């Protein structure tokens, strides 16, 4: 697994792929989808697919791939080694969603939530397999959300393919376990070797699990809070843990699309529009002046001042 | 998402980002430090900030580019105040005009230093020391010399001719620079018509007149319009505040009940303690594009609703 | 309101010693005046694409471009080091730094010629048309 395409720019999303086994282009195949690193406040989320001919299901089962969460890191690395050695009939592809992609998507003006992001990524990966000539007949998907809706969505999107969406699919279907292993191995390696593009000097790498509940993670987040910038791009700013820490220990930042409750929002809307409506120059202190600033100036947000 | 914090006013502002004409900050000349001064704004009749530099006295105008939700990074620091100040050379005659017009009502020739003075704005008399002032006074006043002393009397005719030249020059520059003189930003679509051919020549002239009027009293502005043979617009288009770009995420909200009441001034001041979710989302919608502000004031709104 | 007779002197002789600085105009209000690790966190992570620059701030995607000061104009950062006790007294500001270009950032929107700050840069040229001397 060569991570260098992602590591050359870890601020954006990146796809890593294995070679497509020839047999997958000629025989009916099954494909598993799983994700790694959905919950942590640090590092990327990785989406993985694994595929192999339906006829090789037993072989895969015999290789004892199991849910990657029940495995140790070393065991996972070993199993990935096995998958890699079976490249004559197993192929894989990964989509690494950088923490910066996750932050900027979730915090976008038009919010792009993690579920939508996950679904779109999964769909893109399946489409990639199809585009590469993989003869897909069965797709198995692990999900944390409601399985039924997702299954309908995917079935509609990929007619002629038998789609099964299940919670804990990674422990039920070996091909999903294999996908899970690929995703988890990639996520672990990326986190371990994270290359901070910020100029932060030596950064402590004892992040813990990356889950907000982990004291080590919490300690790291406290240590590396910068009052103005908050965090390096390694951190998911859209996580409430990060938000709360920045709110309490960082500098307050206001955006034009900040959410406000109805009352304040209505009030501000009112005030703002009123100001714009009258938009008198010179501070507008002169009551008798009904002067309307010419639109050359108001279009350019230019106004006179009465004090420095 | 964490709750958003209220904005605390910026009390400790001690730095400003400025773009200044090189002539304002030349360092060659001795004893010519420029200074920000307050003078009477001819349009508002209230104080506005200008800059005067001594020695070779020159007047500059100070305007701020100011938009909500902006801050600066200046080197390795944050400057919360996101304004960008422009210091541009200014014609001192615009500031002297109101004083001359006022004195002109008496109809007699007077020494200008007795005319251009203002108790409220002591720096005002320094306008006369501007290198350009005395040599250009003839654009707005008749001159008489008696015993080596000069006397002046405001001339509307001269002033109009002078202003007309300004408008004509402005007109040329607007066309040359392809400045959009149409209705400007259309509220939500945000399309700007830029093709010159779409405009009537009068649009440019009117626009130029509007810009020059930023420096003229209402009376002078009207007189100039007449002088330019532009008809006064009897019912000027209802001024709309420049509306924000609409947020896509807040597109149409299905109204489950009569929402016009949310447009009343009452609602803006005192929203009901508890709102339904539909009401909440309505309250969040940027209404500037839906109803003009004037409807807040118009008594008709309530009547129409019945 | 402060007194109309007090003035604010600009100590222009400080221009000579003033350092050239990098300026960024951000599409958000930061409730802070003072130091920040701008080069470490912002400058180091800016990506230069063909038509725009991109960076993130507080997890939000920004797109920006460079703007050059109009010809005949200089960018100054003025600083007031000693505030007088009353508004009757004259104030003095010095030129803390100078610049000839700045980078402005939009929230998610690609920079374009209709951006208000780009249009505001028209002002010096048009001011010249309004205020330049008129021939007889």
UniProtKB/TrEMBL annotation, chain A:
EC top class, in one word?
A: hydrolase
Q: Which SUPFAM superfamilies match?
A: Ribonuclease H-like
- Where does the chain bind a divalent metal cation? 34-35, 142
The UniProt entry, under Gene3D superfamilies, shows: Ribonuclease H-like superfamily/Ribonuclease H (3.30.420.10), Ribonuclease hii. Domain 2 (1.10.10.460)
UniProt keyword Plastid, yes or no? no
Catalytic activity annotation: Endonucleolytic cleavage to 5'-phosphomonoester
GO cellular component terms, semicolon-separated: ribonuclease H2 complex
Which cofactor(s) does the record list? Mg(2+); Mn(2+)
Q: One Pfam family from the UniProt entry?
A: RNase_HII
Xref: NCBIfam families: ribonuclease HII (TIGR00729)
Q: How does it assemble?
A: The RNase H2 complex is a heterotrimer composed of the catalytic subunit RNASEH2A and the non-catalytic subunits RNASEH2B and RNASEH2C.
Q: Tell me, what does this protein do in biology?
A: Endonuclease that specifically degrades the RNA of RNA-DNA hybrids. Catalytic subunit of RNase HII, an endonuclease that specifically degrades the RNA of RNA:DNA hybrids. Participates in DNA replication, possibly by mediating the removal of lagging-strand Okazaki fragment RNA primers during DNA replication. Mediates the excision of single ribonucleotides from DNA:RNA duplexes.
What's the protein here called? Ribonuclease
From TrEMBL, chain B:
**Ribonuclease H2 subunit B wHTH domain mapped to chain residues:** 94-224
Record-linked CDD domains: RNase_H2-B
Residues of the Rnh202 triple barrel domain: 29-91
Where is the protein situated, by its record's location annotation?
Nucleus
Primary subcellular site in the record, as a coarse category: nucleus
Assembly description: The RNase H2 complex is a heterotrimer composed of the catalytic subunit RNASEH2A and the non-catalytic subunits RNASEH2B and RNASEH2C.
Q: What does the UniProt record say this protein does?
A: Non catalytic subunit of RNase H2, an endonuclease that specifically degrades the RNA of RNA:DNA hybrids. Participates in DNA replication, possibly by mediating the removal of lagging-strand Okazaki fragment RNA primers during DNA replication. Mediates the excision of single ribonucleotides from DNA:RNA duplexes.
Family statement: Belongs to the RNase H2 subunit B family.
> PANTHER family of this UniProt entry?
RIBONUCLEASE H2 SUBUNIT B
Q: What is this protein called?
A: Ribonuclease H2 subunit B
Origin species, per record, is: Eleginops maclovinus
Q: What is the lineage of its organism?
A: Eukaryota, Metazoa, Chordata, Craniata, Vertebrata
From TrEMBL, chain C:
Cellular component GO terms held in the UniProt record: ribonuclease H2 complex
- Biological process annotations from GO: RNA catabolic process
Q: Which InterPro entries match?
A: RNase_H2_subunit_C (IPR052863), RNase_H2_suC (IPR013924)
* Name this protein carries in UniProt: Uncharacterized protein
Supply the source organism for this entry: Eleginops maclovinus (Patagonian blennie)
């Amino acid at each position: 697994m060569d991570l260098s395409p992602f590591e050359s720019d870890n601020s954006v999303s990146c796809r890593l792929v294995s070679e497509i086994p020839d047999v997958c282009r000629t025989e009916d195949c099954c494909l598993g989808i799983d994700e790694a690193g959905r919950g942590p406040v640090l590092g990327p989320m990785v989406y993985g697919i694994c595929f192999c001919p339906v006829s090789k299901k037993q072989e895969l089962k015999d290789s004892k791939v199991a849910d990657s969460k029940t495995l140790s890191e070393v065991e996972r690395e070993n199993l990935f080694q096995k998958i890699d050695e079976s490249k004559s009939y197993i192929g894989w592809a990964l989509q690494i969603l950088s923490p910066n992609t996750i932050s900027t998507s979730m915090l976008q003006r038009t919010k792009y939530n993690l579920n939508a992001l996950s679904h779109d990524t999964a769909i893109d990966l399946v489409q990639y397999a199809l585009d590469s000539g993989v003869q897909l007949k069965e797709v198995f998907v692990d999900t944390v959300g409601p399985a039924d809706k997702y299954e309908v969505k995917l079935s509609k999107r990929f007619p002629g393919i038998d789609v099964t969406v299940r919670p804990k699919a990674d422990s039920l279907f070996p091909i999903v376990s294999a996908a899970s292993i690929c995703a988890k191995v990639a996520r672990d390696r990326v986190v371990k070797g994270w290359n901070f593009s910020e100029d932060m000097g030596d950064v402590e790498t004892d992040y813990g699990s990356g889950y907000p509940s982990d004291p080590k993670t919490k300690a790291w987040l406290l240590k590396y809070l910068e009052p103005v910038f908050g965090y390096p791009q390694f951190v998911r700013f859209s996580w409430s843990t990060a938000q709360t820490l920045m709110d309490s220990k960082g500098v307050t930042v206001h955006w034009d699309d900040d959410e406000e409750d109805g009352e304040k929002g209505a009030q501000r809307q009112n005030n703002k529009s009123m100001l714009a409506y009258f938009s008198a120059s010179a501070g507008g202190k002169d009551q008798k002046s009904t002067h309307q600033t010419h639109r050359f100036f108001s279009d350019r947000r230019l106004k006179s001042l009465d004090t420095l | 998402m964490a709750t958003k914090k209220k904005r605390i006013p910026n009390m400790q502002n001690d730095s400003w980002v400025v773009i200044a004409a090189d002539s304002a900050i030349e360092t060659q000349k001795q004893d010519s430090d420029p200074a920000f001064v307050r003078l009477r704004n001819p349009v508002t009749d209230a104080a506005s900030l200008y800059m005067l530099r001594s020695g070779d006295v020159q007047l500059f105008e100070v305007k701020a580019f100011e938009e909500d939700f902006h801050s600066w990074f200046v080197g390795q620091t944050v400057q919360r105040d996101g304004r960008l100040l422009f210091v541009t050379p200014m014609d001192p005659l615009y500031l002297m005009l109101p004083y001359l017009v006022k004195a002109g009502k008496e109809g007699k020739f007077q020494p200008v230093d007795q005319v251009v003075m203002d108790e409220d704005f002591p720096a005002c008399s320094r306008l006369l020391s501007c290198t350009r002032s005395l040599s250009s006074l003839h654009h707005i006043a008749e001159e008489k010399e008696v015993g080596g002393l000069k006397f002046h009397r405001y001339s509307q005719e001269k002033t109009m001719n002078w202003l007309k030249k300004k408008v004509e020059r402005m007109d040329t520059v607007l066309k040359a620079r392809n400045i959009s003189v149409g209705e400007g930003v259309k509220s939500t679509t945000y399309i700007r018509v830029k093709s010159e051919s779409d405009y009537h020549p009068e649009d440019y002239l009117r626009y130029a007149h509007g810009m020059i009027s930023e420096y003229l009293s209402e009376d002078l502005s009207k007189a100039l319009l007449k002088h330019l043979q532009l008809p006064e617009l009897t019912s000027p288009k209802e001024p709309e505040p420049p509306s924000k770009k609409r947020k896509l995420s807040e597109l149409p909200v299905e109204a489950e009940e009569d929402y016009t009441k949310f447009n009343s001034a009452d609602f803006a001041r005192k929203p009901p303690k508890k709102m339904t979710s539909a009401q909440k989302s309505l309250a969040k919608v940027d209404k500037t594009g839906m109803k003009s502000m004037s409807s807040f004031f118009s008594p008709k709104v309530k009547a129409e609703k019945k | 309101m402060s007194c109309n007779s007090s003035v604010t002197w600009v100590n222009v002789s400080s221009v000579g010693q003033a350092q050239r600085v990098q300026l960024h105009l951000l599409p958000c209000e930061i409730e802070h005046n003072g130091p920040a690790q701008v080069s470490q966190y912002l400058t180091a992570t800016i990506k230069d694409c063909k038509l725009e620059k991109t960076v993130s701030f507080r997890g939000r995607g920004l797109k920006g471009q460079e703007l050059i000061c109009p010809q005949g104009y200089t960018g100054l950062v003025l600083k007031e080091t000693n505030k007088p006790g009353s508004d009757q007294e004259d104030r003095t500001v010095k030129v803390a730094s100078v610049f000839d270009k700045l980078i402005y950032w939009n929230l998610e929107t690609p920079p374009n010629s209709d951006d208000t700050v780009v249009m505001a840069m028209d002002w010096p040229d048009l001011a010249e048309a309004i205020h330049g001397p008129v021939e007889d």
